[in-house]
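Practice problem: predict the structure.
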Amino acid sequence: MGLFDLTGRVGLVTGGNGGLGLAMARGLAKAGAHVAIWARNADKNAAAVEELRALGDGDILALSCDVAKDEAIEAAMTRTLGAFGRVDACFANAGISGAGTAIPDITAQGWDHTMAVNTRGAALVYKHVTRHMIKRAKAGDPGGKLIATSSGQSIMGVNRSSDYAASKAALNGLTRAAAFELARHKITANALLFGYYETDITAKADPKFGEWMARRIPLRRPGDHAGLEGLAVFFASPHSDYITGQCLPVDGGLCIS
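Answer:
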C-alpha cells in the first residue's frame, strides 16, 4: 500500500469536469479512489469520465448537477450513494467568475447569482454530504473531508470583482464554522485559496491581466495543474486529519507580494 493510497475511498468533486476540479479529480483517480463528478455540461462530463477511468482502478461517475439548486444536489447525492455507498472527501469546487462589474454598477441579480453558486452552492452541497457523514459517524464510522475551492481574492483586492471576492470570503467563513461544528464527528473542513491558474475562465480575460499577474507573483508563473493532483490527494487522505479550519493560499506567494 502506498503512502497516499485512496483505494476504496470515495471522492466527490463539484465542477470536476474541467479546470482546477478536473486536476484534483485526476489526483484522486490516480490514488485509486472512486470519483464522483457533479457538473452541468454533459459533453465535458463524458470526456472527464473517459479520461479518469484510464488513470486508476477506481470507478468514475459523472452526474448532471447545478449546485445553485438544492433539489439537484439532493438527487446527485442519492445517486452517488447508490453507486458507491459512501463519500469520504467532498471538494466543493464548482463556481463562477462573478458579474465583473464595478461597485457603482452592482445589480442585485448579478450579486445574488454569484452568491448562489459560489457560496450557497457549497453550503448546500455540504448540507447533504455531512448528513451522510454524520450518519456514518453515529454508526461507528466517523470521519470525512470537506475541501472548498476559495480564492486569493477573498483576502486581496481586485478591480471589478467585489461579488466574487465577497462570495469567496463567505466561503472561508463557512469553512471555519464547519470545522468547528463538525469536529466532534471527526469531519475536517479546509479551504484552498487559489491564485492565478490558467483555466477556461482566465482565458476569457484580457491577456494583459495574465502578464500583470505573472509579474506580481513571486514565483513568476501561473499555478501548475499537475501540482493540484497531489494537493487533492493529501487533503483527501488521513495525513491531513489534524488540519482543519484552515484557509490556505495556493498562489505562488501572490498574497504576500
